[in-house]
Sequence to fold (504 residues):
Amino acid sequence: MFSLRTFAVAVAMVAAVGVAAGPAAAGTVCVGPQAGCFSQLQPAILAAHDGDTITVAPGTYAGGVTIDKSIRLQGSGAAQTVISGGGPVLTIGRATNPTDQTVSIDGLTITGGLNDSSPGDSVTFGGGVSILVAQLDQPPFNSTGATVSITNSVITGNTVTSHAVIPPGFCGPTFACGFNNGGGIANGGILTLTNSRVTNNTAGSTASLPSAASDVGSGGIANHFSATLIVRNSVISGNHATVNSPIANHADSGGIGSGGALDVQDSVISGNTVSYTGSLTTEAQAGLAGGINVDQGCPCFPQGASTIRHTVISGNTVTAANTNPDSTPSGFAGGLFVAVPLTLDHIALTDNSVQVSGAAFAGGDGGGMEIDAPVTMRDSLVARNRVSAQAPLGAIAFGGGIAMFGADLTLERTRVVANSATATSAPGPMPFGGVASAVGGGISNGALGIPAATLTLIDSVVNANRLSGSVGLPLQGGGVYTTNGLVRTHTVIAGNKPDNCFGC
Fold:
């Protein structure tokens, strides 16, 4: 006969089975000088289980650490807990179920990373933090890796470089090549960066450490093809993408280089630099995107949506120089380069610059930004950006504030003021089309024979922009230069020099 006692025993047995079969409770592992704690971070990670929290006491601890579990890494504050050294300092990823890995990092400084060998001697990603793609050497290539959040932290003083090159054949029949990306962070997963600073990181060469690479990018953060980068209330500042080697080809993305989905809000992207110095005669020969590069990445991956809102992009620079008289170096997009459809809302795009010099010819554009895909910009300021090009036989500078490259631009309630373009050279034709000149001090649309797009200005102001150049060089469109007319509603174009609008 079924009794109350039998029922109670059965319930107890079920409960016991349930407890035994359920997952282990999350635990805490400590790192620090206290009794019972690990003295360094890597042994603590080896002892931890998925779901655990690792607390790190004030102090400086060795980097070169791999995180291959879903854990929470809790420091004592970025001013007190430092993870230093290694190459990278932190590597996040695992071989089994990599897309299921979730890592949270809070209250740390990550510094002193020097990566010149991962994932290879001539192709390196991530000086401070490397979030691995899920697949690198087998299909599906470059699939999205771990989900990571970095909060209240500082990633500073890290370098990604290389000491070897890929022999001729891979990049061209006669050219060796090498690639360095992500001085501060290389993201192959889904990364959310909140209340943090990414500063003074380098991709490529430093004063004391020359890089063998031909192409470098993303001094601050590299966001890979299939990855997602979300930035909130953070500062990306003082980072550098620098190439200066016998095989130097191009440098890009001083602050952020994104080939995946990008969402930036309430942040500052400032004082980042791109520097290209070379002597080759190959076509690329360029420096671009001092602040942010929103690129199309690889066409084999669908490009995620990208937006930048309530953000300052200021004081970023691109410099490009080539000493070979058979070369025509170029520099563009001092603040922002756009190659995918993008919405810009409440942006201060200010005081960015492009400077290009060549032994014979040179070209520069987009002191503030260059757009190669449709852009809508609302309630924003484009001010005091500048582009200059200098070469003895011919130089062209255009789009001091904004350069349009065959892509539509709509400005709503936006001011384009006090931007400039300057060309210094002898007058004459340029080897890639057009003539030596300065055009579009504020906005250029269709310069250099580039197909013109639709420029729409609504409730906006284009004022106090200017052009300058050597004697005999054409100066056209101090405010706006367009070869496709202008759609204009309640907009003022006035006070620009030497003229307000060419082609309007």
Notes: The domain at 44-502 is CATH 2.160.20 (Pectate Lyase C-like). The two ends are 97 Å apart (CA to CA). The longest strand covers residues 306-314.
